[in-house]
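Need tokens for this chain, all 484 residues.
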Amino acid sequence: MKLAWFAALAAFIPLAVLAAVKSGAHPRAVTPPPKTNPVHSRPRALPEAVSEPEFAVHSVSEIIAALPDHVRDLKGYLGDWLKLEAALISDPESVLPVLLDRYAREADPAYKGLLAVLLAAHPSTHRRILEDFRSETGESRELFQGMALFALVAGRRDPRESGEPFWPRLIDLMDFASKEMALKRRILDAPGDGEARRLLDELQGISRWRSGDGEIWCYVSIDRDKVVRDEVGATNDPDVRSTLLDVLGKKWEWNLISHVAQWALRDSAKSDRDFAGTLFREFMDRGDRDLMLKGLDLLMGVELPAEHVATVASIARNSLADRKVFLNAVDLLGAQKGAESEAILADVYAMTRNHEDFKETVLTAMISHKGASFEPIATVELTSSSSDVRARALELLAEVNAAASIEPVVHAFISDPDHEVRCSALAILTTANRWTPREEEALRRVAASDPHPHLREKARRLRDAEKRGEIDWWLDLDRELSAE
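Here are the structure tokens for all 484 residues:
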């Protein structure tokens, strides 16, 4: 069973402390999966405070002329910025010419990129933004290109529905990216520039110290890209789709550009199965392993046209010796629905009897698929020697036959020797939220005597909670316990 709250945990925890002990190591954050929010399917919502903009004191031209010179100062003009966006939607004939002129004159790539996102509130500007994206070249222009590409595939969260306003977070992202890119280029031009390295570490929140012959570093990873990822959605514009594919074929200094392209293409494939087939052929029909891996990653979670399922099955069956290809192909099989993919996954499972790590991936794909015929497989794997496989087997059984899973889940919750499996069992019980007498008794036992202090504390708080179906407190507890 895919536990939605558990998978979403990373989105609720913006800070993660990472550490490594290796000279010259470079930290890298994993990008979580995207949220679909198509720009072409709904208008952008505006806050109530600016839905009817009034310029009683200053005209649009005066407000635009008064905007600050630097991105870092824009947050102090947020009210005027929101008024411009609202006016652009309500009275484009008056606002567009002045705002387009300001956009055309802007030399700072980051600032011009933010203006592109602002202009994109009116669809008539999209062609101009696309042409500017294509015509800009050089690393110094990537901050503009990233925002221009985002502008073409971005929806807009209604500020009334979120405690994290869109524009301040986007301005913060661009201010950070501008400083980071400038320091990286300074270091590239002068590798011995210790001051630039110190400033970059300070900006990125990295601490370093020597330990013997190596170097220890740690940093606080802030998911600054989330403000973009949350707003990227599908596009049905063939020119934009073509541009997104071109982006994936290039290397970028600012990796957000390729991320935006990937998120938008994936969402477009999810909403348009014919386009999913087009992408599949684009990446799978050339016999190139690297291209195949890129395609499998891009199509993660996408349901393909039926004629391509057999090809994915063939890739999986023929790649047991190529771990990465096998795992990605099986993951894609899990997104395919129907009897054919269900039978294929059962067949692939039979091939993994001596590969516990591969078996876990197959079970995870079965959880995504939800095929009823997987119940016997789940039951068999409850006694696996691998704790990861046991945990996935519990989730699979709970997904395909919730009633039959109660006793195995309770048994694992009380007595599995691995606390991670017991945690998985607790997550299943919490998500099901049915609390039979047997489950209540198990919860009391674990809360009183589980050997793992974090699991015991989770069980205790769940036992005492008035509304167990509300999980905000659970996520707060995970943050609290992880920080200890």
